[in-house]
Design a protein that fits this description.
The protein is mainly alpha-helical and 198 residues long. The chain is 67% helix and 0% strand. The N and C termini lie close together (11 Å).
Length: 198
């Protein structure tokens, strides 16, 4: 360590490759517009979208792009099933944005990305099922047993969400790492050096 402060290069304001990956993820949220026979059950790109955009574009762009993806998903549900959007799921997906922004902004670590993905998915599962129990979406009853039954009933739904989180998060972060090294060096992540953390 030389004792001299090290300067990290300023991040570019316009990130075409990162925006393109984000756009693909937003469009993938429209998978719900497909007929149910062609759509993987409960597989969603939205968690990965929240984590990725928060980590690579920032907090407010992540909120905007995640909201666009959620809007497209809800439109698909409304057109194919007549299902009304739920504010609770919108708020729960913001948890992905928060974790991506807090823990992944200066990291390309697969361990950190995987940990944030699994943590965000678990938080989403716990919060949405707890609120479903509070609202008594199904008559579980206001008891510990009713709450546990609600969580057990939510496991099949969470399986698809978890698979989608893992697949799409790995795809987005991997594509960003590869493309930024090969074609878009200005968009590489400015990693935090170990000396700067001490």
């Amino acid at each position: 360590m030389t004792g001299e402060p090290t300067q990290t290069p300023a991040e570019p304001r316009f990130k075409p490759m990162t925006l393109a990956l984000t756009g693909v993820a937003v469009l993938a949220a429209g998978i719900n517009l497909l007929p149910p026979t062609y759509r993987p059950w409960n597989l969603s790109v939205l968690g990965a979208l929240g984590l990725f955009t928060a980590a690579r574009l920032g907090l407010w762009p992540a909120i905007v792009f995640t909201a666009l993806g959620l809007g497209l998903k809800d439109l698909g549900f409304y057109l194919t099933r007549g299902w009304e959007p739920q504010l609770i799921s919108w708020l729960a997906f913001i948890g992905y944005v928060g974790l991506g922004w807090a823990f992944l902004r200066r990291s390309e670590s697969p361990v950190k990305i995987g940990g944030a993905t699994l943590s965000a998915g678990l938080i989403f599962f716990l919060v949405t099922n707890f609120l479903a129990w509070v609202e008594q979406a199904d008559p579980y009853g206001y008891s510990l047993g009713g709450l546990l039954n609600c969580y057990v009933a939510g496991i099949p739904f969470h399986r698809g969400t978890l698979v989608g989180d893992v697949i799409f998060t790995a795809a987005l972060f991997s594509a960003h790492a590869v493309l930024s090294r090969a074609y878009f060096p200005a968009e590489r992540v400015a990693l935090v050096r170990v000396e700067e953390q001490q």
